[in-house]
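Job type: complex structure
Entries:
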Amino acid sequence: MSMGVISKKGQVTIFIVVAIVIVVAIIGAIFFMGGNKIYAPTDVDPNQIVEKCVKDAVEKSVWKMLANGGQRSPSQAIMYKGSEYNYLCYQADYYQGCYNIHPMLESLVEEEIEEDTKVAVQDCFNSMREDFEGRGFDVSGGSANYSIDLLPGSVEINLKKKIDLVRGESSQNFENFDTKILSPLYELIKIARDIVNSESEYCHFEYNGYMLLYPNYDIKRIDYSDSKIYILVDRKSGMEFKFAVRSCAFAPGI
Amino acid sequence: MRLNEKKVVASFEVILMIASLFAFSYFIGASEEVFNEIIDASAENEKSSFVKSIFEKLNEPIIPLVSAEIFDETIFGDSVLIENTTKTVFDISSNYLGAGCCELTVDGQKCATAMADVCSEGALFAEGALCSAISFCRKGCCYDEDAGIYDKNVLKLDCPKSWIEDPNCNLPAARLGCCILGTNSIFETEGQCRIDSESRALGVDSIVDWDGEVNEAQCLMLSANQTEGACVLAEGNCKFVTDVDCLNYGGEFNEGYLCTSSSLDTVCESTEETSCVDGKDGVYFVDSCGNYANVYDSSKLYDEGYWDKVVPLEDSCSSGNIGNANSKVCGNCNRFLGGICSSASDENFDVDFGGFYCKATSCVFEGETYLNGESWCVYDGKIGDGDDVVGSRHWKYVCSQGVVQIEPCADYRNQICIQTNVFDFEGEDVQFKNAACIANNWRECIDLNGKEDGLNLCGETLNCRVESVDISEYFKFDTCTPKYPGGFSFKDVRYQETAGNVCGMADQTCTVVYRPKTWGGCELVANGECLEEKFAQEMNDLCRSLGDCGGSANIEGVYSGNYMVGNSPTLGQGYISGLKALANPVEGQFAEVENYDKYLEAAGLLVNQDSVAEGDGNGGSITTIMNSIGAGFAGIGYAVGMVATGSIKVTLASLQWSAGGVAYKSLAVFSGAAIGAGIGMVAGAMLAKSLGLSSGGSLLMSIGGGLVGGAIGYGILSGGGILAISLGPIGIAILIIGIILMIASLFFGKDDCPPVTVTFECKSWQPPVGGNDCGKCNEDSLKPCSKYRCRSLGASCELVNVGSDSELCIDRGRDDTNPPRIEPQLGTISPDEKYSDISEKGFSMTSLQGDCISAYSSIVFGITTDEPAQCRFDLVEGEFEELSFDLGGNYYSYNHTTTFMLPDPSHGQSQGGNWTGDLTFYVKCRDTNGHENPGFYTVDMCVREGEDKTAPVIRRVNPADGSIVNFGTSSENLTIITNELSTCKWDVADVDYSLMINSMNCNDVLTLPSSPAGYVCSGELPIINSTSKYYIRCMDQPWLNSTEDRNANTQSYVYTLRKPEKKIEIDGIEPSEDFEVNTEMTTIELEIQTSGGGEFHSCSYSFSGYENMIEMFETGTERVHVQQLNRPSGTNKIYVECYDETGDSVQGSTNFKIIQDTSTPQVARFWQVGSTLYIVTTEDAECVYGITSCNYAWDNGTFMGTSKTHTISATAGKIYYIKCRDDFGNVPSDCSIQVQVT
């Protein structure tokens, strides 16, 4: 019994020693061979750095869009409980249906996100450049082609920029930095359109029935100071799209 | 008000509504006509001192103490309400001079009613126009066909894509249909469906499964009924998807099988994991490949059979809970019954396996359970029957997946919450509470009182009810009032002024008539009930049913009285307690769902063939209503200083004459006795009358006088030198009896039995002073505070931090300990007067020369306070609440103005009055905290007295000079208003007053002018020619016997009436012919051409008949009336009615059929000649082609031409995907044809 145990321990020890020798030998060979340095893929892949950076920027911007009814900052808004609610449909006069003041909201939001994040996106490349230059790379690049697409369930980031990483004789090229973030923005904007179309035509949106038909969304409506505040909630993500409507407002008297 | 102003100035309905308020006072007043006859008969008994008269007249509630603006402009004839406050954008309900439609204001508002100076530079501005009628503010459809996005009601300048002038987006591609996306379905346009399909990572070649023939509910059902199964892919991979998706993935579809089925030999295995699934309510097991399997059932986790095939929901587990809510073991949720899939960890819920459970979706509120989706109404107190308390709001609560959400209905009770507990589903009653906030129709109820048949319409009009005041036989009337009275802004002067007018509709005077009894004393003839508390109660009920008016309680049950009762008991504590109790909600009460069918039918939103019948029209022209404006008012100035001096003066001369004797000694003794008796009786009667004896006393006096006279006559003619001897004992006895009777008669004096005028003044409701209750507005999180709610709790309550998350109702006046400081309003005074002797205690008003002010001129004065205050005044000192008159309105403001006229004191004196013309107003102001100025602020003035050498002035005429009358009329009633009591005549020739033939009816008395603008005379003028000219002159002081002492106009007021050449006619209505469209709904332009009639034409339309007409927006020119309407395809009948300012109207209708052409062009044949491919379509069509698939947007196709024959220069071997569309835009969702070229 005891002999068997000793021999097993010995075998393990031998294996470990052999393994260490092999590893040291390989490292030594590489060291003494010289030539191009080998980097782990993550080290030399600017995509991950840029993507993460860009996604962070776009995510922040998406939150702004959600909070501000599809704009970086509200253009015409009502204050309610300390927040500004951007008007998507507005009628200054009493008793009249509203004008949809932000048609093609998807396009508007895409442009707004692009405008809101283009500096940050450029900064992402600058950071990446500094990072790689700090590691001895020559970094060169072309102009960026940047756009945002709102799609069901996601915000697609289309980012094309030619990046050349050169160190010594080795170089790598990168161009496609496309990525996307998951967001219900597209769906929430579609609901907002239904609401605005209905409010502008009938001065009313039957949100109660809508919630029953589409249980993934929660719609809150508050009648506040001649306006209606709408808060659309995607129940899965908890994200809220907020906006206001002033349609068929009533006067406080005759 | 001219009809064209309706077109170009502001909202017609609301002006009409305001107009009707004035008309309404007259309307109610007119109900007393019969009763007035009784009053007239007793008027001669009225006696009062001058001071008493002033006081009484000032106490009359119908005295219109109105602001200068309203007084000058709105009471009579053409009227415009002038806005004083600074405002950049106006509500459409107001009628502001100079306002118009501005394309873009300086503060960024588009298409707003505003003044020109706040319109942005370069922005278009149309003065006097409604934005809805202006081309640059026309709404249209902004669309992106590729993306399938269609936005309604967009201005052209706001649209970054395509725009057409159809606000309803009636385009074929805007049609919604069902887009199937795997197990999900979305109700959207085909374009959106394409994008959604592509974005599901299925690429541009993915199958677009869109069906335009189903509705939204069916669409959702389609997703639930999708055929699902295991889609086995290469290398044993598997996806649980629909057959269509499996086709896209290129896998082998196994309907009804799960990916974990042992028979499929996939790599997927069962797990303990669970998940929610899009489009499904339940919790589902998840396999190792990430596919969902059957519904979570903890008992079946290790049951291989449960992981083999799809188990229908009805055969799945049930925990016994409704909807399996809060079950640890079963995930067969049903959101309608009470459960829906939710994260267990988020909700701290323990489940046997996995991380999800059926979260309860029902809600418990105040002990009652509500199902998911149920909604119900909550109120602040009793509702309906005009009982809604001030500051109250209707609330809709919704149970949304276990959470109670609050939706406040529009404030000021502009919306009401209606509720049903049961709905009909395929013939069966289903219990499900459903509530909705809908518009409160209270304005129309008020408006109906100005219409001829308004009361008849009232009962059948939405949210309206007939309020009956039935106090006595001669004092009863009906009024149309809202079931749910609207609220008024307490601090906005503009709305407080109109609130005063609305409330003023309940101002009433009940005259209690007495007559003397036979043996003295007075007996009641009529309206004695007005002297009881019942009068104040019923009148207050009417008052508060009109809105926030009169004595009412707020949401905290705090009462505030805003009424005045004259000569009758005020509201008792018992009644007031009842009002306070209205602040307690009534259990189980909710606003009923009324019948909206006739409104929907009229608007064409509900088709009811039975109701489509021609009617008689709705009657009630604007002219009729406006003609009533101004009547029924009494002027304050005329009230001040006027004396009721109608007493009959019987001089003693006649008595002396009769007693002094007629003696004809030649008469026989008995004749002498008879004559003496007769004379004695007459003398006795006259003496009785002069002594004011009752009828019984007069009888005794007459008999006594007769006896005495007879005895004396007998004695004289019997020749006796000494009366006692000549009479004899019988004669002496008769004489003594006569004297006794005469003396006895003196004990039966006639009592003065003047009528008692009982008055009720209904004022706009004002919150109680102070702010002790302000904080209560912040206490109930389920009923968030608002400006209206907050301000109703106290006069010094104010909502602060508005819009922030710390919005609070606070007492603004807590630190205020000072009373308001009063100063004269220097900028507000009549042009002929000035303020003088200004001190802290008051001022005087004098003429510009510093002496007394002129009689019969409009006198305007005002004061300002350094903080918002209510101001009142009176002719005698008293407590604030006792002062009879509001200075500037019954609301808190800085500026307080009033307007009135004063008569010449000598005119009153000439009829027994003793007023010398000196007058002092005692003014008190009270701030929101109840602080009053110490003592009184006095306003002194005197009215110039002197010989009247001025002829009367005709101030107003109605109809206005130059008006057009009905085409068919042969006469027109004219009403004129003079500045002083006059008699007036008219003639067709310009001659002296004395030569004029036609006298007008001038029934006003000095003490009671019918209009605040002056004294009213009326007459009927014959309509002679197309243009008739009349000359009117008046003469003042009609109480004078000699016309030489009176002043007549030496120059005529020339008045003209015109008659149309022909009655208003409808020349044409479009559409009048059938036409084809390619959509279910079509935006049509209803166009009506009119001619003849007056200058201003307006039209209305209806789809159900002439009973319920809808005013057109009048977007056309004066004779062309255009309205955009959204109509379904099929047979359409539109009823139209047009009218002019004369009240003439004409009706017409149009019938047409909208034919929906949805067929797409068909390819009849195709052939190839060489490299040219020919396509022939069945109708003219536009064709394009693609070369990859049918799944391309129209605009991306290559154009092939527009005709029946189309050609392509084709390449051999290629497939051409061809789409063709007709003139209506009908295009197949797929391809018209696919052709492979050889």
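Summary: Confidence is low (pLDDT under 50) at residues 1-5, 34-42 of chain A. Chain A has two domains: 1-34, 41-246.
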